[in-house]
Amino acid sequence: MSIQIYNTVTRQKEPFNTIEEGKVKMYVCGPTVYNYIHIGNARPPIVFDTVRRYLEYRGYDVHFVSNFTDVDDKIIKAANELGEEVPTLSKRFIEAYHADTSAVNVQKANLHPTVTETMSDIIAFIEKLIDKGYAYEAEGDVYFRTKKFKDYGKLSHQSIDELRLGSRIQVGEKKADPLDFVLWKAAKEGEIYWESPWGKGRPGWHIECSAMVKKYLGDTIDIHAGGQDLSFPHHENEIAQSEALNEKEMANYWMHNGYININNEKMSKSLGNFILLHDLIQKYDPQAFRFFMLNVHYRHPINFTDELLESAITSLERIRTTVENLEHRIAHSADLGLNNGMWLKKVEGYKEKFIEEMDDDFNTSNAIATLFDLSKEANVYLQEENTTVEVLERFVSLFEEIGSVLGLELRKVKELLDEEIESLIEKRNQARKDKDFQLADGIRDDLADQGIILEDTPQGVRWKRKS
């Protein structure tokens, strides 16, 4: 069976066929970096990191790009409130994003482009849209002619007439039609800006991803993904911009993950149920949070409660205990010359079941159910009078295999001694002095994985264990 992916455009599962055999070009919309990300923002990186891991597990070479919006109205507002420069604020929260997502075992993308470093490409993209008649300048702003793109609405399955009913021209907008959307914004007094053919300004939100996809992955990519909230208008507008310019499909598969509710209510600041990932991982095992997120199919909504997370912690610990018991038995078993064929075949059956579930639109919920079944089978085997190293090791290796694909550490982590932590911090300090930031970041991320939080202060580095 081939991998099946639910395509938001067609509203059905489709066999996964890549543009280039054995290779996947994948783009996931990243965050706007003006604060720590909340747990809703954390779902796309966890989900699509797992998709990436599984595709690699199945033998694909995945070129994975995920952006940062590092200039935007929200960022400008936050920078003004904090008395910081926009680039300083953005850089700080990009680093925070990497630290927090690394704690939940999200691998960095092959590329994390930003708006500010892609500015010349964005401007060139807009110029070409104007040349083709799909965009127009109005007193320093540039807008996209939505009606001119005949397929507008194909992702969200809305017609132009339906969209027009709720469209209005807001105060200060100079667009010719209520459906038109902004590609370039003229700078307001005191705002950060870039020079352009239309004067000082900065890009609209939607254009950045179109420019980045084209620059780093090409005119057509295999998978474009993000949260369900991005399907309209962000992804709809991306399609319009990119396909108007390139005259090709922007992506062959569009994937969107579902929302997160808190105690059965929509998460929002006004309701006071806004949970930052940064805060959550200080209190709970970050791996358990990832386990919790993957326990629901990515397209379905998740309801978050402390009780459900506590349940996930207990479930993950049960699996880890099984692995620990297997490893303990390995140390005390011998090759008894028994016929292990039946048991080895059973273990292989769980691997096949895991692949079958993941091939079905990356069904991590059923994949984790398979993991529980494997754990039960392992515990049955551990009750056998005669166990052999061969079968025990095959159980352990399959736990590791599945854990790696799901981004879950299924071995119990040995707690670092205080002196080991201090030694690693000293090594990180030296790496920073040597400007070896890759090593320094790696040490910080490794410590975070083991529940050690570093805080860089003017007085030096402080550390604490997650409670």
UniProtKB/TrEMBL annotation:
Annotated Pfam families: CysS_C, DALR_2, tRNA-synt_1e
Keyword Zinc found: yes
Cofactor binding summary note: Binds 1 zinc ion per subunit.
Top EC category: ligase
Positions that bind Zn(2+): 29, 209, 234, 238
Record localization: Cytoplasm
Name by which UniProt lists this protein: Cysteine--tRNA ligase
Motif ('HIGH' region): 31-41
NCBIfam families, sorted: cysS
Keyword field contains Ribosomal protein: no
EC number of this enzyme: 6.1.1.16
Domain Cysteinyl-tRNA synthetase class Ia DALR: 353-417
Cofactor(s) in the UniProt record: Zn(2+)
Protein keywords: Aminoacyl-tRNA synthetase, ATP-binding, Cytoplasm, Ligase, Metal-binding, Nucleotide-binding, Protein biosynthesis, Zinc
Similarity remark: Belongs to the class-I aminoacyl-tRNA synthetase family.
Motif annotated as 'KMSKS' region, chain positions: 266-270
Residues binding ATP, per UniProt: 269
Catalytic activity: tRNA(Cys) + L-cysteine + ATP = L-cysteinyl-tRNA(Cys) + AMP + diphosphate
Gene Ontology molecular function terms on file: cysteine-tRNA ligase activity
Matches recorded under InterPro entries: Cys-tRNA-ligase (IPR015803), Cys-tRNA-synt_Ia_DALR (IPR015273), Cys-tRNA/MSH_ligase (IPR024909), CysS_C (IPR056411), Rossmann-like_a/b/a_fold (IPR014729), tRNA-synt_1_cat_dom (IPR032678), tRNAsynth_Ia_anticodon-bd (IPR009080)
Complex formation: Monomer.
